[in-house]
Design brief:
CATH architecture of chain B: 2-Layer Sandwich
Order of helices and strands of chain A: HEEEHHHHHEEHHHHHHHHEEEHHHH
CATH class of the largest domain in chain A: Mainly Alpha
Number of domains of chain A: 2
Largest sheet of chain A: 3 strands, antiparallel
Structural class of chain B: alpha/beta
Oligomer: heterodimer
Helix content of chain A: 40-55%
Radius of gyration of chain A: 24 Å
Largest interface: A-B, 40 and 37 residues
Number of domains of chain B: 1
CATH topology of the largest domain in chain A: Cytochrome-c3 Hydrogenase, chain B
Shape of chain A: globular
CATH topology of chain B: Beta Polymerase, domain 2
Radius of gyration of chain B: 20 Å
Helix content of chain B: 10-25%
Strand content of chain B: 25-35%
CATH superfamily of chain B: NADH:ubiquinone oxidoreductase Nqo5 subunit
Distance between the termini of chain B: 62 Å
Distance between the termini of chain A: 45 Å
Chain lengths: 436, 173
């Protein structure tokens, strides 16, 4: 029997049989079914003659990380074609945001990528600030960095737990959610919400962080590195884990760029593209950190890259906390940022601003901008076009999961069904982010 | 000479009159090109050794209904080597527009163009697999068009359950 790179025995590939020798009966040919007719042009001739098997995976499948449907053409256990079918979580976020004023549309952003709520807030806030030309005080910028890096850690923890769970390492999953809980408690402390924070707003933050914030983050910085080493010990040199990940889903750097991959999935193939370094935003240029890179671009490399990113995020949080400036956390430009509650009772002008901002909103100029941040999954871009009024003409989310999942057919080709769950896990997709 | 001036030069050399307007807004450059020349424009900026816009970061469309030209298609390009961003834009007339697909130049445009087709009804000629992406295959209309209603679901209570159920657009066999 042939062996793959990791030394496992694989069933041999059947030679391409001519259609006349098809083993399938014409009655059993699956493409007579009108529900499959849509995919007819995407599968091989052998599927149409009924020789290879069409398997439907999802949308209710535990290892697709949400409602992702995959149509697989299989030769034995080997994947010949993989056709992702998305849209089960499509909620029309872009349309909804175009129907709301710039301030009110913010709450929709939390619900896009539900593992990166603060990061989505930041991406949108930066886009609005760029569109209207609004400056953000340095303290707000630093707190934004701290929170998004904590969010990156929590997202990576969920990724690590579920990825390991897919590959049958149950305990990692339980540990990861324990640490994630600490981060969510910090979010609850600053915003009142564990997940849908809406804390980062155009012009700054909703309000300043409470005094318990700094000790809580410092406590987390203290305990987390040790825990992270424990997880590494569970997986990084675990022969079972290596066997399931090394040499699986390999993609070269060039092919990854061409396929539109970003984030850990791209850096696993050795392409140095991290927006925090390439085009720094929100003061990332002040902090000292490294961008971990992989080399072969397999599932294992993508795992290593994300694991190595976590201590770097922690470094950024620590630096930002040590140099946290004092001062306001909101822009003082009352034409765009609502006044604090305390002012409204004393100043007629504040009351007018408050009323106007929450009813009409502010007008943004005609013009379009594209602003992107590095989300835990890759380049999260917002294309925002103003039309002179208080609502956007177009809000487009270039979400990393959407592009990463579109590369799945390339990555999955020729692998076993059992490895497919590892490949999906290594792309770190969130279906809310894919479908918007 | 900055990289974006160079990009304009390359585009003007490749397209001539095909470059229509150049807009600068908040430090971002948008170049409007002739819809018939979009593939040539993408290829020119991708292959120019001084530019290397090898990444299609994003692609989307905008609906300006009821104004004409009604649609704009936007190509957000990115040059990893030079750290530059450039936006190409083209405008399309009418309710059933079509434009050449750039999948041959940027393979990652595949799903972007499917999404634009699904959401705006813009057809991409030469696309290998132009199907709806997010909406069901039998869906009527294109949700992100401005003349498509935002829509909502009426809440069903016991007293009006059947009445609302009758109006619901269930999928037909």
């Amino acid at each position: 029997m042939p062996k793959n790179d990791s030394g496992r025995h694989l069933p041999p590939m059947r030679p391409e049989a001519p259609v006349t020798e098809s083993v399938g009966t014409p009655e059993a040919a699956p493409f007579d079914d009108p529900r499959l007719a849509e995919y007819r042009h995407l599968v091989s001739e052998r599927a149409i003659s009924g020789e290879t098997v069409i398997l439907n995976m999802g949308p209710q499948h535990p290892s697709t990380h949400g409602v992702l449907r995959l149509i697989l053409e299989l030769d034995g256990e080997r994947i010949i074609t993989c056709i992702p079918d998305i849209g089960f979580l499509h909620t029309g976020v872009e349309k909804n945001m175009e129907a709301k004023t710039y301030i009110k549309a913010l709450v929709m952003t939390d619900r896009l990528d539900y593992m990166n709520n603060v990061g989505n807030n930041l991406a949108y806030a930066l886009a609005v600030e760029k569109l209207v030309g609004l400056d953000v005080p340095p303290r707000a910028q630093a707190i934004r960095v701290i929170l998004t890096e904590l969010q990156r850690l929590s997202s990576h923890l969920v990724w690590l737990g579920t990825h390991a769970l897919d590959l049958a390492a149950m305990s990692v999953f339980l540990y990861c959610f324990r640490e994630r809980e600490i981060i969510l408690d910090i979010f609850e402390m600053v915003s009142g919400q564990r997940m849908m924070t809406s804390y980062i707003r155009p012009g700054g933050l909703w309000r300043d962080v409470p005094s318990e914030f700094e000790p809580a983050v410092r406590e987390f910085i203290k305990i987390f590195p040790r825990r992270l080493r424990q997880y590494e010990r569970l997986l990084t040199k675990n022969p079972l884990f290596i066997d399931r990940t090394r040499g699986i889903g390999v993609i070269s750097g060039e092919a990854a760029l061409e396929a539109g991959l970003t984030g850990g999935a791209l850096r696993g193939s050795g392409v140095n593209y991290d927006l925090r370094k390439a085009m720094p935003y929100s003061g990332y240029e002040q902090y000292d950190f490294e961008v971990p890179l992989g080399s072969t671009g397999d599932v294992y490399d993508r795992y290593r890259v994300r694991m190595a990113e976590m201590p770097q995020s922690l470094r950024i949080v620590e630096q930002a906390l040590n140099t946290l400036p004092r001062g306001p956390v909101q822009s003082a430009n009352r034409k765009f940022v609502p006044p604090p509650r305390s002012e409204i009772g004393q100043s007629m002008e504040s009351l007018i601003h408050h009323f106007k901002l929450w009813t009409e909103g502010f007008d943004a100029p005609r013009g379009a901008i594209y602003s992107a941040v590095e989300s835990p999954r890759g380049e999260l871009g917002v294309y925002l076009e103003g039309n002179g009024g208080p609502k956007a003409q177009r809000v487009y989310w270039r979400t990393p999961s959407f592009m990463n999942i579109s590369a799945l057919p390339i990555l999955a080709k020729g692998h076993l069904v059992a490895d497919l769950v590892g490949i999906i896990g290594s792309l770190d997709i969130v279906l809310g982010d894919v479908d918007r | 000479m900055s990289g974006l001036d160079e990009a304009l030069n390359v585009l003007r050399t490749a397209l001539g009159e095909g470059v229509r307007t150049v807009t600068d807004f908040r430090g971002e450059t948008t170049v409007e090109v002739d819809p018939a020349r979009i593939v040539a424009a993408c290829r020119a900026v991708r292959d120019a050794p001084t530019l290397k816009f090898t990444r299609l970061a994003g692609q989307t469309a905008v609906d300006y209904w009821p104004d004409e030209p009604r649609f704009a298609v936007i190509y957000q390009l990115h040059s990893l080597e030079k750290g530059l961003r450039l936006r190409l834009l083209l405008r399309l007339q009418g309710d059933a527009p079509s434009v050449a697909s750039v999948v041959q130049v940027f393979p990652s445009a595949n799903w972007h163009e499917r999404e634009i087709f699904d959401m705006f009804g813009i057809r991409f000629t030469g696309h290998p697999d132009l199907r709806r992406l997010l909406m069901p295959a039998d869906w009527q209309g294109h949700p992100l068009r401005k003349d498509y209603p935002l829509g909502y679901e009426e809440v069903q209570f016991t007293f009006n359950f059947d009445e609302i159920d009758r109006k619901k657009p269930y999928a037909k066999e």
